[in-house]
Amino acid sequence: MKILITGNMGYVGPVLSRFLKKNIPAVQLVGFDAGYFGQSLTGAEDLPESVLDRQYFGDVREFPREILNGVDAVVHLAAVSNDPMGNQFEKVTEDINQTASVRIAELAADAGVKNFVFASSCSMYGFAEGGARKETDPTNPLTAYARSKIGTEERLKQSDLKGMTTTSLRFATACGASDRIRLDLVLNDFVAGALTSGEITVLSDGSPWRPLIDVEDMARAISWAVAREAENGGQFLAVNAGRDENNYQVRDLAEAVARQVPGTTVSINLNAPPDKRSYQVDFNLFKSLAPDFIPQVSLDQSIERLIVNLTRMGFRDQDFRNSPFIRLKTLERHIDSGRMGKDLRWLRS
Questions:
Q1: Considering all CA atoms of the chain, what is the largest pairwise distance in Å, rounded to the nearest integer?
Q2: Which domains does the chain have, with CATH numbers?
Q3: Nearest partner of 293 among 221, 229, 211, 215, judged by Cα
Q4: Helices marked H in the chain — which ranges?
Q5: What stretches in the chain show pLDDT beneath 70?
């Protein structure tokens, strides 16, 4: 089986590549990435891409169709990957996350690719009252990032993909250890704060709900989707990817981290304005379709792995919210240095 992973040099890609190599016999892996975050390594002893059979570099907005020759499945991770980046680069977010994503899916279908896996997000539920959100419930996107995910799903459903089995995995909020860590994710932020300053700062009043999924469990879900048959869920499937037990309030996440890092204090801003991003998610459809691939990593295990990951690299930066491990800060540094334009294209001398 030959699998192409776009955006493989980000947070999820290193974990996914190793997981697929370990769990799919004789798999061939090909990566395609712009290299925005290639230098954001976290103490890895070897380059994560060393497990790949081939690595291509390029912009998904000019994706070369010939790379798809002989590919059985595409895992499309490439995206402007969170709300702060989407807010600052709104038009680019639409171009990369939606327009380019649909074009790559159409090119894949033309090339005879059997399975296309789109990394979507539960953030499309936005602010949701009245219980856990199912796939059939209305969405309420509050950001450019969330709108781009919904827009891509709608376009994929409407496109003629020539019988290609297409799976949109609406992932819960990512967390956990990776060779390219992100610290702009809620649990990862809390662990970084506890380790560097002994304090977790919760910017909200702690009440918003977030579903979580460890990056290893994201890889587990993707390994199911790359081989999913259309009879199991339909030719096009949008499914919440996570586990019901992993719906948490933000204050509970902070307390869970504090329990594992002795001496940590938790500061909650009880006077903060309401955080409109609050949603619980129902994952029963995923459980019924992929019972052997449901998340297995517990919250405590995710925290423990993050502690090991950051300790291994000697991470001590109390100003980590301005570090290269915050994706927006990395893009801003590329732009300020003249390496990249505001359209997030590399500038060539």
A1: 57
A2: 2-336 (3.40.50.720)
A3: 221
A4: 12-23, 83-88, 90-93, 101-110, 144-158, 186-197, 215-225, 250-260, 284-289, 299-312, 327-336
A5: 83, 274-275, 349
Contacts of 247 (CB under 8 A, 6+ apart): 132, 209, 210, 211, 280, 281
CB 184 within 8 A of CB 10: no
Please give the Cα distance from 99 to 114 (Å, whole number): 21
Report CA dihedral (151, 153, 158, 159) to the nearest 10 degrees.
100
121-144 burial code (b ≥16 CB/10 A, e <16): bbbbbbebeeebbebeeebbbebb
Q: Per residue in 190-214, pLDDT tens? A: 999 999 999 998 988 888 899 999 9
pLDDT, one tens digit per residue, over 94-132 is 999 999 999 999 999 999 999 999 999 999 998 777 789
Q: Say what the pTM is.
A: 0.96
In the β-sheet with 209-214, what is the strand arrangement from edge to edge?
173-175, 209-214, 247-249
How far is 121 from 245, CA to CA, in rounded Å?
Answer: 18
Q: How far apart are CA 331 and CA 337, in angstroms?
A: 10
Instruction: Return the structure tokens found at 189.
Output: 């932020």
Predicted local confidence at residue 198, as pLDDT:
95
